[in-house]
Every structure is written in structure tokens, then in C-alpha cells.
Amino acid sequence: MQVRYRYRIYPSPGQEQALARAFGCARVVFNDCLRLRDACHAAGEKISDTEVQRRVITLAKRTPDRAWLGEVASVALVQACQDARRAYRNWFGSLSGKRKGRVVGHPKFRRKHGRQSIRLTRNGFALRSQRLYVAKVGEMQVRWSRPLPSGPSSVTVIREPDGRYYASFVVERKTAPLPACAREIGVDVGLDRLAVTSDGEVIANPRFLRVKERRLARAQHVLSRKQKGSVNRRKARQRVAVLHRKVREARLDHAHKTALRLVRDNQAVYAEDLAVAGLARTRLAKSVHDAGWSQLLRLLDEKARHYGRTFHRIGRFEPTSQVCSACGVKDGPKPLSVRTWACGGCGAVHDRDVNAAKNILAAGRADRLNACGGDVRPGLPPAVAGEAGTHRGAV
Ligand SMILES: [Zn+2]
Fold first, then answer.
1. How much distance in Å is there from the Cα of 243 to the middle of ligand 1?
2. Rounded to the nearest whole angstrom, what is the distance from the C-alpha of residue 7 to the centroid of ligand 1?
3. Closest of 174, 150, 152, 151 to residue 307, by C-alpha
4. Cβ(371)–Cβ(126) under 8 Å?
5. In angstroms, what is the C-alpha Rg of the chain?
6. Any idea where the domains of the chain sit in the sequence?
7. pTM metric for this prediction
8. Which of its termini does the chain have fewer beta carbons within 10 Å around, N or C?
């Protein structure tokens, strides 16, 4: 299966400049693609992918205001075109209902600030004596925190807002199935608790993560009060970027450990589909924790594949917190402040989230039986830049 391995890289000052050019060019090409497709769409014209690429790269290079596109590796520009195509397709598929899952909006234009990246296929990079060579940038030093399991098919070079650089390789990794076991579990992902299982286990967000999140919130508040263009504002922005990274790393680390444990201890793990969970809690889904849920679900899926276990999302809209898991009586909606309730049918007292997890387990089992024991796992997720995760320190 394909996974991503991420490493920190250390470009020289000259290489940083070359990368900045490449990021800029890829961003412009990506945005030009979107504008061109939007214009064609508005005019009711069909435009082929090759024609888009010809106009935003080949022809654009010949014009004075895009001539600088020639200074960077064309493979990075072609990949930017393909990223734009996929983003556009996802939006279209979502509009027409062909694409499953959460509704995807119009692709966003890439911005100059924030995370920057370029994607390169085999003809744009190489590994040479422990260094990463990138076309028109040069050989960069890599901190190999662990060995690559196989030769990478592509790499994404990333500059994070805090100024650190990373290389995220797409590699093929052999699965390592674990011996079968009989346990199955339902998982309810949540806000104040990362997850609650049908066994009644509460997996909280660790205290150190909450502390870091509070620090980040405070730094963001400080930043909002600094004058635009001032040195102090730049310093405050850097501090926010660093704290962002710390929160991200702490959350990812915790999600990895949680997902590994759940997959290792259970033959099958069931969870609510995020799109469904999002529907039920639209306002809250916008919260910062949203990232935590999708990350945990993605890692559960990835680890289940790797260890030969089953991870299945129940896709139907079911009010998992309203139905009594003991007798099946539907007890009506309850505000989020209600943590425990007694069933009007059988009198059983439920923890809201544990009850939901039990219903998820039952629904997941029913789904699998309906599928006649077939493999119900969804297809390979796309290798989104720097997102498909791997291990501690990734993303
Ligand atoms: Zn009941």
C-alpha cells in the first residue's frame, strides 16, 4: 500500500531562494488553472486538461509577465496543474452528487502566506548519497529519522509557516497483518473527548495538548492586536506559527498512539462517517477539533490496512445518541449538555457517548453482514500533499 514518509530537510540560503521561486510559480500556475477553468465554465465551453496545461504553462512562458515560469522545474508546474484539475474535479463531483462524503466547495486560490509546497514526480527529484536532489534547486541535506521502506515514487517539498522545510515521500509499504482476534469495537469521535468506545473507555485529549492549544489561542489574540506591517507583528506571527506546529505535532502523536492501540486490540473498528457526524453537529464541526477527528479516522483506516484489520465507517445518517443501545427505543434529541440519560423504555442509564459508540458498533456489524462478509473498506485515499500520514513527526 502507498503511504507517506516525512522528513525534515535543510536547504541552504540559496536553495531556499530557489524553492521560494518554485513555490511561487507553482502557486501562480495553480491559480491560473482555476481562473481558466472558471472562465470556460462560465462561458459554457469545455476545455481539455492538455489544453489547460498548454495555455497556463507552455504559452504563458512566452508572455512577458509569465516568462519567469521558465526558471523553475517544469515538472513542478505540471503537478500544480494536476492538483488544480483534481480540486476542480472534486468540486464538480460534489456538485453533481457523484462524489461521496463531505460536500466540497469551489477550490481555494493558493495564497502567498502560509504553507507552501511543490510536488515532484520521479523525473523531478532523486536521492543521491543520503541527500535529496530537486531539479533547479540542488542537493539538500535530509534528517533521516527512519529509513524509507522502498524507493519513493514522488515527493512533496513543503515550507511550513514557521519556516521549517520538509520532504514528504510517497512510498510503497508491505502490509504486516496481525493474527486474528475476536474483539470488535465502536468508536464515537467527539469534541472534549477525542473518542469514546463501546467498551466505555474514554480517550481524552491529553492535558499537554490542551495546554498547548490555550497557549496558541493566547498568541493568536496577541497577534490580532499588533499593528500591520510592524516588526512586532512579524514576531507575533512567527510565534503563532511555532505554536501551531507544536499543537499539530502533539495531536498527531496522540492520534497515532490511539489509532494503533484500537487497531491492534480489535479485529474490527467502526466509526461514524465524518460527513455524517458533521451533519449532526454542523456548528461544532467548524471547531479546531475537526482536524482531530478526521486525523484519527484517517489513521485508523491506514493502520487497519497495514495490520490486516477492518476499519469501517457507518455511512447512513443515524441519530446514534438518541437511540437506547439496550432496547432500541428512540428517545428523541438531547442537548449536548446532557451527558447521561435514563431510557424511557427500559430504564437503562447511559453515558451519552458510550451509548452512541454501542449503536455505532451495532450498525457497523449490521453493515458488514449486509455486505455478505465482503470487504467493506473504502478505496485508497488520495495522497494529498503532506496529509496522508505516517508516523510521529509526520504532517
Ligand atoms: Zn432502553
1. 46
2. 51
3. 174
4. no
5. 23
6. 2-172, 184-202+250-370
7. 0.79
8. N
